[in-house]
Fold each of these.
Amino acid sequence: MNWTNICHMEDIPVLGARVVKSDAHGDIAIFRTSADEVFAMHDKCPHKGGPLSQGIVHGRTVTCPLHNWKLQLESGEAVAPDVGCTKSFAVKVEDGQVYLSA
């Protein structure tokens, strides 16, 4: 995998997100949980395209700000009863730096 250094972990708010622009994939939201886990997915809800980076992070899910769809951060899969998926991306943290493979 090709890893790109995105930012320092502290640049992502706890229970929040940071958006990264990608020529190949469009906007990618990088999320940070309360347990300092980091996940990445398209910044677009599969329902109506809402900006997931502006949603509420709780546990390992994010709630879309438009219509309250919940998506699993690790896979991008919608939580039942909703159905759909947004693309997730590999992300890792080393020495406080966040790396993305997209």
Amino acid sequence: MKWPTWGQWYQRVLGLIALSCMIWALSAVSACVSVPVPATDLVSKGREIFFNETFNGNGRTCGTCHPAQNNLVLDPAFIATLPPTDPLFVAEFNPDLKKNFENPKLMRQFGLILENLDGFDDLENKFVMRGVPHVLAQRTSVNSNQGPRTGWSGDGAPGDGSLRSFATGAVIQHFTKTLNRVSGVDFRLPTEEELDAIEAFMLSLGRQQDLTLPLPLKGIVAKRGQDIFLDNQLGKCNLCHVNAGATANFGAGNIGNANFNTGVEDLPDQPADLTGEKNPPDDGFGRPGDGTFNTPPLVEAADSGPFFHNNAIETIEGAVAFYDGKAFNNSPAGRALAAADPNQVGIELDGTQIVAIAAFLRVLNALENIRQSLELLESGAKTSFGERAEDRERIKRAVSETQDSIKVLENGGLHPDAVTHLLKAKESAEKAHSSLFRRRALVQQAVDELRNARTQLIEVS
């Protein structure tokens, strides 16, 4: 028998070591995937509750109407992808909720959810149909001089109006097994600890501070849109959306998140009305309502449509154009703007100006998508091998944010050079999501392409 040489022994030992490492690594990955990561902080606990806790109700969670994979909003395109057994459709398969709980036709066609904001004493007649607002940038969006503003009309929470109360109200309205809505029977109410965790999670979502406009944008059309947005004699957008956020600086100065009657309810040919389905007018804030609705942040607007409380407008361009129309300019808010204008004019914009403002909002949204993608990927690059399952989830979310930025720019015909970099970033991140040994390198490639895309949109110091 011929004995192996020293070199051959050395190669065999190296091979055995490599094989052992691979077996160990695969078992470690398997363990990471199958064993849930414990919630060690309030935000993590809140995330778990938000997306998985049913509160012993009809199967819905907060994430049913605020799905993570769809910018925390509902729209008809996303709804169409859901299986018929999804808890969103509980009114279609639970006999106790078949009537006066949802309108499946308006939900599926227009993403509208039934709300009993004026109480549960007359379910047949006292309800409104509303879209689902995203819950991003809550830390900068809900505070006002009169207290928290939640939901489309600013009174989406019972009690003190806080985000904690918002969660309680959501359970009572949307999670119930029957229309009796008896706590302990139809659902259980969140505990104080759960409310703390949900609030912490919601406050962690999206931007933690407002922008400071103007930004050094590169696109000619978006740059012009920013100028119009900030011009208090032309676009006048910044009066009610300071720095494209949800705070107002109109009339009494900076008043935080504010309610206005902008005439959205007076729009003709509202899609839900055209169906012939029962769709009572939405009276807005209060019981009974005063016709006002609160101001949403605009940085996240372009990829979270349809727009307004009733999902009446499909595109960001259409939403901007609304403010040039009769419904707005004849509304109390429109008349107030005209009264404060030296020429007694509300908002008058031409088509190219409307497109420019929309382009500005699209670029803002894409920049926010890129910021979030970078944050997710760069934080994931610092994790250890044992945190791989958590890292994969971050990468998955980064892919989703990157896809949103691509869609927002492409749908506006903006910055094809940036879109090219974003497509490459998405491809690298997708590969990183499924890669075992090249993850860090692929993540870095995605990060580099995201930064390249950002430099096409804005001057980076």
Amino acid sequence: MNSKKTNGLILFTFLVQFSLSSQIKPPATPQFLNISNSPFYFNSTLQNSQIHNYPLQPSALGGTNAESLLMEQSQRNAVPQPIIPPSDPYLLHQFVLSEYNQKNNSNGNSESTQQQHLLEIMNELHEDEKRYNNNEPVNNSEALLAYEQAYSQVKNMLTGKSKLSFIDASYYTEAAYGNSYMNYKEYKTCITQSAEFIKKWLKQNSLPNTPQNIHFAIQQFMGDTMSITVKLADNKQNNQTTVHYPFKYDYEDYDGKTDYRNFFSTKCLATGTGQCNSMPIVYLQLCEALGVKGYLTFAPFHSFIKYKNPEGKIINYEPTSHWTIPDKWYQDHLGVNQKAKKNGIYLDTLNKKQTVANSLVDLAISYMLKTPIPDTAFILKCLSTAQKYFPKNNNVTIYLAKSSLLSRQLETALRKHGIKDLSEVKNYADTNNLYGRLMKNEASLTALGYQELPQVLYDELLQHQKNGTNEPEAKTKKSLFKLTN
């Protein structure tokens, strides 16, 4: 959620192919196994020719990206093909990184150099935010007003002006996009009803309200069929049974290219179907409603849940598949290198305040998707405010979102000057500055240990994904609760 979201790949069917995990068992005989802004985020900004597969859809930039623009212009004008970065995202990143390192006569491998580099990038982000903050909005639309309201509501939580609530932060962030599956009252009622159902289920199954049992109950609620029985006051001979059916994976438009709301927890709660962004969010919402701690965790193209068992051991839970998966699986199969794990961009946990702060990164990304000509000051404000709650400067989605913004600005400058190949970039102060900053930001991603998933794994994940079939009416608003007598 973190998160997280390149190429729209999901792990549900792939995860269950492996026998590394055990299904969830009752807490009396626990068999849990030991197991990260994007944000998350796993749908590409600029598709095949971007420096990274960024956390936005192609429509967010209103067209092509800088590299493909240059190639199209060169072909159209019969200009000899310049030396430009390759189209493959991984090779393109390596090209840009190599050029940056040559320019700066340093490979930037030392830990102190990397930390200084990350600090410079974040300081630059804050300076940009101050510089743009004095400008008038370029598009003072109704959409921007809705996003500004959501930003203020979340910031008030972070600064102590209102109660810190991930439930509310999630709703404010999603509702700003518009046309929500649920209004606020419906949303809060659904979460309250779900929490009360889980409490009654624990009581009727003689399970004390310990954190371990509550996590077990949330997992059963999301991944299995549960029921509770209530005696009817007016007819003592009959009981009323309430059944809750499990959430299902939504295979249709799981990467949100057609409808970005498919990422949202409100959609998951309203329809009973979701994916690896929305389902972990619902899990955390239930944790908050039931008073237990759960933590959002990121892996490449994916997010999931971590929590502690009574012995203090970290447990990983996959809401998408109702399985527990060890950390080693993610390292072996999703390309989580040691640097990425050490720097905490993957397989680490976000505390509650960081999870709320990360919703501001989601807000910036959503705004870029929603608005053809977004207000740069608002985007920078969201990213800058969120970054303050990540003292290690390791929220990778902030860097990805910043690169998306820089790419858009560079594309505009290239069009303005009619630049046809990269050799001309240095001839103009604005394009030279933007290109240099983009390279520097890309280098910061490598310093954190970020890398693209190898193509062979893309292909394997996609092949497994083709076997997924959708539940009927996956987009239809309905309740998973059913009453029987």
